[in-house]
Amino acid sequence: RIRINGVEMDRQRVAEFIEQHREVFLNLDLSFFELTVAMAFDEFARQQVDVAVIETGLGGLLDSTNIIQPVLSVITNVSYDHIDVLGKTLPEIAAQKAGIIKPRTPVVLSHVDETLISVFREAANRVEASLFVANLFFQVEA
């Protein structure tokens, strides 16, 4: 799950990270994803990466990756995943996923149902973020 320049994080380094933070982790109710995000951020800082591509878990407002300030956000799709947390309708889920949109930070929508674009456009407008709908600029052919 954690790669730098295509190379997986060393298993020994994973074990060291877990051991080093064991007491903290035992006192928190972290999901596997949240623990992995903490480890990834620690490793990226330790390795002093220039650019990191961070994938969300739940996506959006409630995601543990939401603590970073990206240079660009990408929303790839909206579907009926995590409905117990994000909402029961696609517009509700889209509104939650729009939580990754940061002030004055560009966001690209990729493969998003056209009926949901307005949800993202409104969220982007609220925080003065530029919104780009990928299929208006590019066409992918298989």
3D architecture notes:
- By secondary structure, the chain is mostly helical.
- It is built from 7 helices and 5 strands.
- It has helices spanning 11-20, 22-27, 32-47, 83-86, 90-97, 117-126, 134-137, and strands at 3-4, 7-8, 73-75, 107-109, 131-133.
- The strands form 2 sheets. Strands 3-4-5 form a 3-stranded parallel beta sheet. A two-stranded antiparallel sheet has the order 1-2.
- It starts with a strand and ends in a 5-residue tail after the last helix.
- The model has no long low-confidence stretch (mean pLDDT 91).
- Structural class of the helix and strand makeup? mainly alpha
Q: Largest sheet, order of strands side by side?
A: 3-4-5
Question: How would a crystallographer describe the biggest sheet?
Answer: 3 strands, parallel
Strand residues, percent: 5-15%
Overall average residue pLDDT? 91
Instruction: Give the overall shape.
Output: globular
Would you report the number of β strands?
5
SSE string, helices as H and strands as E: EEHHHEHHEHEH
